[in-house]
Fold:
Amino acid sequence: MRTYVVTGGAGFIGSNYIHYMFNKYNDEIRIINVDKLTYAGNLENLKDVEKRENYTFVKADVCDSEAIGKIFEENDVDRVVHFAAESHVDRSIKNPDVFVKTNVLGTLTMLNAAKAAWENPDGTFKEGKKFLHVSTDEVYGSLSNPEDFFYETTPYDPHSPYSASKASSDFLVKAYMDTYKFPANITNCSNNYGPYQFPEKLIPLTINNALHGKDLPIYGDGKNIRDWLYVEDHCKGIDLVQEKGRLFETYNIGGHNERENIRIVHIIIDTLKEELDDSDPRKALVSDKLIKYVTDRKGHDRRYAIAPDKIRKEVGWYPETKFEDGIRKTIRWYFDHQEWMDHVTSGNYQKYYEDMYSNR
Ligand code: NAD
Ligand code: TYD
Structure:
């Protein structure tokens, strides 16, 4: 039975990945979820897997080399899938330090622990061991020419403290591959959306605010473009890269779902109106009139867009879910999980919202 260490498994993509993997492999794999449970980590996301005998949760910081080393000593780990990170650009602009700590030093700690466990005395690595570093397309910077796309060969040009910290972590993984022949892959994915996404990001924030009749904040002119990927497609891509990708390679994941932010918000409003029953009092609250243009994000990247040619050719992955279908599924999920939203927006979330949006 293959053993996976998944870091950040209580977050948005990590928890979707754990669900995806148990659905696909059921009892053929074991997953150890290592998460510090920051504001973004929520064990409620994993309620339906927590009783499985082949699932273990370990509360630990990826920067804590002792705790991470112990996990590798006590388990014969075959795969590491490293999601744990601080992930929100706006927070990185306000408080960059924790981004460098978790994203850069945390990745170094994970690399060192896996290297110590997997390296043979002659410097080669044990058969079948693999580390997958989950990264972002934001490391490539911003596209200005509409005909350009991000390829794996696009030079790194990060602008925000978040993307700079992710770029640094990618370079560490590349350095371990080049220097030690450490068995790893990097995936650089575009913006994800779907179940369990924390409502600090554009899509769940818009859904939640619209249902409460609250302002829908649009930064700048609303014409910044992101390339949106349904989270399950991302999880599938990560699994396929591990199964079929060439070691030491980087794969971009995403493509074909570029939308301007203002368009995203209009699609959400229209879909909410279609999906809500006439008898539902929230229907009267959802309206274009809630849209509010606010001061732009500092250093706001204009456009991200992935060319998924390499991953399609080498591992057969392509983005399966069209945005209009994925957003409908996502909205239905939020309807069915109102309690989840109520829990994550209680407590500290109110303070975060005040700090980020009042007087903006
Ligand atoms: P998230 O913020 O929802 O979750 C991050 C998880 O990491 C949380 O469970 C949190 O508790 C945990 N964590 C944070 N600091 C930790 C630490 N020091 N030690 C252990 N655990 C810690 O993030 P996400 O959106 O699920 O993103 C996951 C990964 O995917 C990140 O590496 C991110 O850079 C990358 N990524 C995200 C997107 C996206 O659109 N969300 C796109 C491409 C790549
Ligand atoms: P976000 O979901 O934070 O992801 P990222 O910054 O990683 O791309 O933001 C997506 C886009 O939406 C980005 O261009 C910023 C914009 N945005 C708003 O206009 N209003 C908001 O309230 C938020 C959170 C984001």
Q: What stands out?
A: Residues 19 and 154 are 32 Å apart (CA to CA). The first strand starts at residue 2 and ends at 7. Residues 89, 191, 201-202, 205, 217-219, 224, 226, 261, 297 surround thymidine-5'-diphosphate (ligand 2) (CB under 6 Å). Residues 2-197+230-257+299-322 form a domain with the Rossmann fold fold (CATH 3.40.50.720).
